[in-house]
Structures are given as C-alpha cells and as structure tokens.
Design goal:
This protein is an alpha/beta fold. It has ten helices and 23 strands. It has helices at residues 20-31, 47-51, 83-96, 193-204, 229-236, 242-257, 274-281, 291-296, 337-340, 376-405; strands spanning 6-10, 14-16, 37-39, 106-113, 118-126, 134-141, 144-146, 153-154, 169-171, 185-189, 208-212, 219-221, 223-224, 227-228, 286-288, 301-303, 306-310, 313-316, 321-323, 326-329, 333-334, 367-369, 416-419. A five-stranded mixed β-sheet has the order 4-5-6-1-23, with no helix packed on it. Helix 1 (20-31) runs parallel beside helix 3 (83-96). The radius of gyration is 23 Å and the shape is globular. It binds flavin-adenine dinucleotide, NADPH dihydro-nicotinamide-adenine-dinucleotide phosphate and 3-(1H-indol-3-yl)-2-oxopropanoic acid. Residues 60-61, 230, 275, 278, 284-285, 287, 375-376 line the site of 3-(1H-indol-3-yl)-2-oxopropanoic acid.
C-alpha cells in the first residue's frame, strides 16, 4: 500500500461503515457527548439499502423490531416499512444525531500500534480529480468500531461451465425489478429471503422463474392470523427455551403453510430449528410473503443444485436440464473484516467475533464490533448501546485525566484534530 497522503488524529472512536450499525453507534456516542468519525466506502449512508437492494423490498420484521436507539419510526409508517421509508428514517436519524460520515473512505487496513497504544486505520479514496489513483488517509485513534456488517460482500460461487452460459448473470444486489426479464426464463440460484422474493417479483413481471434449492430450508409464514410470526417468537422466548419455541414455530408453520413443503422441494433441516440456525449460523429462515403460493401454483419451479452451466441453461445435480435466458444469483453475502482488520484474533476467519452473542461486542485494545450478532437490526441496536456506553466511560475518564494534568481539555476540539500532511499530488 502507498504511504498515506495525509494523517488524521481522531478525538474519539473511528467507526468503519455508515450502515444502520455505524449510524446508531455514532448517534449513541453523540448522546454521551463523545465525538466520532464514521468512514464509509460508498458515497451515501446505508448503501446496502440504497444501492444494493431491489425496488419492492420492505422490512420483513414489524417496525418495532427494526428501530435504532433513540428514535422511533414515524407513527405514520406501516407495520412493514418500505425500503424508501427505511432509508428516509435513516437519513433523519443521521441528521438528528449530527452524524456526518466521511464518504468514499474505503478502509483497506486497520491495526493496533502497540507501541503507541493507538489504532491506525488506512482508508483509500479515488482522487477528486477523477483519476484512478487512490489517495490514502491514515486515521489514528484510541478506539476502533467495526460496523461493516454481515452483508459487506456478495457471495459469488464458482460454477462449472459458468463461462459458457450465454445470458446475463446478475447477483441479487444488482437486481432492481423483474421488468427487464419480462417473458424470460430465469434461473434464480438460492432460496433465502432474496431468492424467494425475487422469484415472486419475476412472476409479477411476467417472467418464468426456476429457483435452485440445493439443501434444506426453513420457511415460516410472515404472519399468522394477522400477527407477525416474529412477534409470536419474541413473546414465547420470554417464557420458553429457544428449542421449544423453534418446535412450536415449525408446528405453527405446518398449520398455516401446509405440510406439503417437502413435496414441493422445500425440505426442513433435520437438525436445528429456524431461530437456532439463524443465531448459530446466520441462516435466516424464509418469511414467506407469497412465493409459496406461486410454487404451489406452478409459477415458480423448484429445481435441485446446479451441476454445471451450459450455453442455454444449466444441468442440475439430478441430471435434469433447466433452460434459462438469464441467471440471478441470490447466493447471499459475507463479512469483509478479515480483508482489512490486521493483527487481531477477535474476529474469526469468516469475519464474525469469535465470542458468540452476547459477548462479541467488545474486543481487546479499544476494539469493538456492532452488527455481527446475526440478529438483524435489533441486534445492531443492542450492540450500539453497549459499545457507546463502554467507550463513553473510557473517553470521559481519559478526558478528565487530561483536563486535570493540563490546562487545555480536548473535549471541545473538533473530532479531527490535525491534518499533519497535505495530500501528495
Ligand atoms: C436485503 C436485506 C434485507 C434485510 N432486511 C432486514 C429486516 O427487515 N430486518 C432486520 O432486522 N434486518 C434486515 N436485514 C439485515 C441487515 O443486516 C440489516 O438490515 C442492516 O443493514 C445491517 O446494518 P449494518 O450497518 O450492520 O450493515 P450494512 O447495512 O451492510 O452497512 C455496512 C456499511 O459498511 C460499509 N463498508 C463495508 N466495508 C467497508 C470498508 N472496508 N470501508 C468502509 N466502509 C465499508 C458498507 O458500504 C455499508 O454502508 C436485511 C439484510 C438484507 C441484505
Ligand atoms: N427484508 C426482507 O424482506 C429481506 C431480507 N433479507 C435478508 O438478507 C439477508 C441475506 O439474504 P439472502 O440474500 O437471501 O442470502 P442467504 O444467505 O439467506 O441465502 C443464500 C441462499 O443461496 C444459497 N446458495 C449459496 N450458494 C449456493 C450455490 N452454490 N448453489 C445453490 N445455492 C446456493 C443458499 O443455500 P444453502 O442454505 O444451501 O447454503 C441460500 O439458500 C438475510 O438475512 C435475509 O433475511 C433478504 C431479502 C429480503
Ligand atoms: O432479515 C434479516 O436478515 C434479519 O436478520 C432479521 C431477523 C433477525 N432474526 C430473525 C429471525 C427470523 C427471521 C428474520 C430475522
């Protein structure tokens, strides 16, 4: 990596990522009077929601489970806000708590400098002159908050014969609507919430989807008799152990969705209930909002795993051939923390804190994580409150110390205290 063009001392934590996690921890810090710097690789907040999701997306949990700390959703919002409403809420949230991320700052490396007792975070931005050349800035501070999320990078599996397929291949993060696919046969790889909803959207736009289901999957109704399944689960968890709640959920799912799912190609996992698999492995159960009915009606075909791609479609593991004009990869996402966080063993090779929930928010040497609990936005909110509270104690202690040992306290300094070097051309 090139030597940094400039170095900036941060008075307060350096937060990487301006999604809901980064925004909420910065907001909580603000309410404690602690300044922070939020670094975001993209040029907007919540870029996952603004740039990498399809048009018809809504929150799929009731809104009270998706609120960030310190600000409820507007009462006028529906139970399941649209992504546009969610983004407006996040914009209002950032404004209310004076969170102003530094955009186009892609963190390429962060390491703890043991000699100095400080974090050194290197971020690259493409040059303002529009050239390809990256400008590196080094941010130095006492605390580092990892808020890059569970969905930072796309999973793009390597398929045999991928190069021979003649049609367009798109990851779901680039899919906006089924309109361009009208009249086409589309092979959708993956049967998580994205795969299911894209299939539904394709049907609504006159396309013919086939959905690859290579393994077992938990499908739950989003609602039962008008009550959110998630609310039922949250209520039951107050009295019953998770495994029992899972068994009840599966029973209720059978009642409301029917027991013919295996016949439709949707087998439930033999071991591990829906919440257990979500919490332990991040496998989110599908909350059905209509795909199942389309599968029953034959409008969405369920097909087994892909063996290899061919010019006009794919050969499946059972030897059958599925003709397709286009492919949508709804194959999920992964964390990118191991790519840039160096010299710390707090995160696993998969980019999650090794200590499981609820311990994974605090690491060593001023390292924190927000948003890796596999518990959606509710988990984000929980982490943010804890992390901000913990940093605030340390920040205020160190400021009290420096105030008593010197006449110039740092609390009123701007967050970025110094720009030691000017950018090199
Ligand atoms: C399609 C979809 C729908 C979802 N719906 C729900 C829902 O209804 N309810 C729910 O509770 N949860 C939902 N989730 C879970 C989801 O994880 C959260 O909604 C939420 O976006 C997580 O926030 P986050 O800030 O942790 O991560 P993100 O929103 O992914 O934000 C992380 C930010 O970090 C930035 N970043 C990444 N790497 C770097 C880097 N190296 N340098 C600088 N910046 C970087 C990214 O650009 C991004 O802006 C959904 C997820 C997806 C993918
Ligand atoms: N608010 C909402 O309505 C929505 C929320 N979301 C959330 O976003 C997150 C990401 O969801 P999603 O994008 O669906 O990703 P998921 O990780 O949940 O699902 C990925 C799917 O791709 C399959 N897959 C991966 N690789 C292959 C392969 N090589 N061949 C065949 N299948 C493969 C997986 O199968 P296997 O299980 O066998 O590995 C799985 O079915 C989830 O938490 C989800 O709940 C997503 C969409 C809508
Ligand atoms: O949709 C997501 O990605 C979420 O993480 C939301 C969520 C958190 N816990 C759950 C349990 C069942 C279904 C969805 C979620």
């Amino acid at each position: 990596m090139a030597a940094p063009a400039r170095t900036m001392w941060v008075n307060g934590p350096i937060i990487v990522g301006a999604g809901p996690a980064g925004l909420s921890v910065a907001a909580c810090l603000h309410t404690h009077g602690v300044p922070s710097v939020v670094l975001e690789r993209d040029d907007c907040i919540a870029s996952l929601w603004q740039r990498r999701t399809y048009d018809r997306l809504r929150l799929h949990l009731p809104k009270r489970f998706c609120e960030l700390p310190g600000m409820p959703f507007p009462a006028s919002y529906p139970e399941y806000p649209t992504k546009h409403q969610f983004v407006s809420y996040l914009e209002a949230y950032a404004a209310a708590f004076h969170v102003r991320p530094r955009f186009r700052q892609s963190v390429a490396s962060a390491r703890f400098d043991h000699a100095a007792g400080l974090w050194r975070v290197q971020a690259s931005s493409s040059s303002d002159t529009g050239g390809d050349e990256a400008i590196y800035t080094e941010y130095i501070g006492r605390w580092l908050v990892v808020a890059t999320g569970e969905n930072a990078e796309r999973v793009l599996p390597e398929f045999a014969g991928a190069g021979s397929f003649k049609g367009p291949v798109t990851h779901v993060s680039e899919y906006k609507s089924g309109e361009p696919y009208r009249g086409s046969r589309v092979l959708v790889v993956g049967c998580g919430n994205s795969g299911m909803e894209v299939c539904l959207d394709l049907c609504d736009h006159g396309a013919r989807p086939a959905m690859v289901v290579r393994d077992a999957v938990h499908v739950l109704p989003r609602e039962m008799l008008g009550v959110a399944t998630f609310s039922v689960a949250a209520f039951l968890l107050r009295f019953l152990p998770l495994r029992l709640v899972d068994r009840l959920l599966v029973l209720l799912a059978g009642l409301f969705l029917g027991n013919d799912l295996p016949r439709l190609g949707l087998r439930r996992p033999d071991s591990g209930g829906p919440l257990e698999l979500k919490n332990s492995r991040g496998r989110t159960p599908v909350l059905d909002i209509g795909a199942l009915a389309k599968i029953r009606a034959g409008e969405i075909a369920v097909v087994p795993g892909v063996k290899r791609f061919m010019a006009g479609g794919a050969e499946m593991v059972d030897g059958s051939f599925v003709a397709a004009d286009a492919v949508v990869l709804a194959t999920g996402y992964h964390s990118n923390v191991p790519q840039w966080l160096k010299g710390s063993d707090f995160f696993s090779g998969e980019g999650y804190p090794k200590a499981g929930f609820p311990e994974g928010w605090k690491g060593e040497s001023g390292l924190y994580s927000v948003g890796f609990t596999r518990r959606g936005l509710a988990g984000v909110a929980l982490d943010a409150v804890r992390v901000a509270g913990d940093i605030a104690v340390a920040y205020n202690q160190s400021n009290r110390k420096s105030a008593s040992s010197s006449s110039s306290s740092c609390t009123s300094c701007p967050v970025l205290l110094q720009q030691q070097q000017e950018p090199v051309p």
